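Section 5.1 Outputs to date
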Amino acid sequence: KSVTQGVVNEISKTYVPRDDDVFLCTFIKSGTTWVQAILRELIDIKEGTDTRVDGVSVGLTEGERIPWIEEMAAIAGPKVYLKRLNEQSAKRRRMYKTHLPFPVVKRWATKSTKFIFVMRDPRDVVVSAWHHTRTKNFTYKGPFEHFANEMFLKGRIECGNWFEFTKECYDAATAMPSNCLLLRYEIMLKDPSKAVREIARFLKISVSEENVKDVVK
């Protein structure tokens, strides 16, 4: 309810993109927070900072290093929040989490902006999304069969239709490999060190093997 079309339009109209911006663009329940944590660790290595917060960082409080851009704009007010983002120091690389479809987020980018997508088996996404939807303030308490058939498969949940959302990310990663990194949740589980190296290489962040071990830990 908070992320209205008006909020999205204001971001598209007001946000001033930079070449080194990074967007973590994912469907819900696909490993977003996990990759967000990896990105934050890599930022600290690159910039020599410590941007950890108490608890799990999901980008919904002031001061978090990787904000959830559309939700924070809705919470703080899009005009106020976008002004704040546009005024951030150019020395600080901006990274954002978003659950909006790639074609929308692409409007906020330059030709050099980086996008990271995470794809997870939809059979696992639908189970996790069912629990997520029942425990959040969506006033939905339906059984799994109803959620899977009438909500998930018909695109009536956060992020809309999984198949459309994922295909748009896949097509972008295929067409623009230098700008887009497509990660597979299941492959990351098998070899998280490889995933950390892949993300670091994609963002041109130099890491040692000790760095990789620390990030995985």
